[in-house]
Amino acid sequence: MAAGVAGANAASVILADEWKSYLQGFVTEDGRVVDTANNGISHSESQGYGLVLSVLADDRATFERVWSFTKTELMVRDDGLAGWRWDPAASPNLTDANNATDGDILIAYGLALAGDAWSETSFTDRAREIATTIGSSMLVEAHGMTAILPGAAGFNDRADGVGPVLNPSYWVFEALTAFAKLDPSIDWNAVSETGIELVRRARLSKTGLPPDWLVLNDDGTVRPAPDFPIEFGYNGIRIPLYMMRAGINPVLLEPFRQNSDAEGLYKIDPLTGERLEPISEPGYRLIVAAMDCISNGTVVPEELRTLSPTSYYAATLQLLTLDYLRRSQPSCMTQAAS
Question: What InterPro entries does the database record attribute to this sequence (predicted)?
Fold first, then answer.
């Protein structure tokens, strides 16, 4: 599997205290992964991350709880994908049944990892079903490339004819590698190459960063999608993490490094370079520190080498980054790094 990913029988590198803090902060007893910075809702993305992290932490009991909630509360669509938004304050709780394909990808990936780690074919079979559905219904042609449609509705059926609207952070590269084994009838490598190509093409812009939501110009360059915020923000900050975990050419990390600093990442206007908002919780700062270590050997600051559970999203990305660094870049985590 891809760099930084737990295979069957691989020992967890997530520390017991870290995992306990994560569970206490963000996972309910019934398996709901709570987005604490978004009014306490849950979504297919949070449930998918919960599944992946449970396997990386080698915690099957939590995995079973998260999966039970996910399949009962979100997997209610006729196509077998997940409704994306679940609100504890609403009735019915599922307030948006449209899918979010990144959530579907993470759910399928978590199931695939679980099937591998615990030799449980039922998880593998369900992962294959979801991956096959994504491959048959959520891939779209974009200027000759095979792209991931962010959801079934609203991204390729616009009244203005603009589209498809794409989100580069939906390319979970390590998951696509796993999908190639689950369903080799689909060219998942071509899908991965499209994600990398979107990052390459964004390098031609003023900042070199892709907008969170983009469309392709006739010449193949990227521009912000109409009717979406013009920003590189909380979506896009995942892109360098996914690239590092999948072992993608580190040269492509440079625009992300150049638009960050020791204080962390930023929400940025990709057209002007204006910094709109700091994104500076420890989990986000660790992504910057990881890029710096890969690029020039700078050791990760000591205060970032263990989990600081601030918000759900920051803590999730921090655990994924810690897993990657401890497993694949251990020299980044010690003073011996050079």
Answer: 6-hairpin_glycosidase_sf (IPR008928), 6hp_glycosidase-like_sf (IPR012341), Glyco_hydro_8 (IPR002037)
Q: Domain-by-domain residue ranges, the chain? A: 16-325
0.85 surpassed by pTM: yes
Give the whole-angstrom CA distance, residue 205 versus residue 18. 39
Determine how many CB atoms are found less than 10 A away from the CB of residue 262.
10
Q: pLDDT for 136-178, tens place per residue?
A: 999 999 999 999 999 999 999 888 888 899 999 999 999 999 9
Residue 328 CB coordination number (10 Å)? 17
Q: What distance in Å separates the CA atoms of residue 230 and residue 14, rounded to the nearest whole number?
A: 36
Class of domain 16-325: mainly alpha
| Closest C-alpha to 212, from 226, 193, 229 | 229
Q: In sequence order, what DSSP letters do the residues of 20-57 get, joined into one string?
A: HHHHHHHB-TTSPBPBTTTTTBEEHHHHHHHHHHHHHT
pLDDT digits (tens, 9 = 90+) for 282-305: 999 999 999 999 999 999 999 999
**Paired tokens of 319:** 């655990």
Q: What residue type is 223 in one-letter code?
A: R
HEC secondary structure over 237-273:
CHHHHHHHHHCCCHHHHHHHHHCCECCEEEEECCCCC
Mean pLDDT within 46-66: 98
State the chain's mean pLDDT as an integer: 94
Peptide bond into 229 cis (omega under 30): no
In the structure encoding, which two tokens stand for residue 37, read together?
């910075």
Q: Which residues are catalytic?
A: 45, 102
Residue 301: how many CB atoms within 10 A of its CB? 13
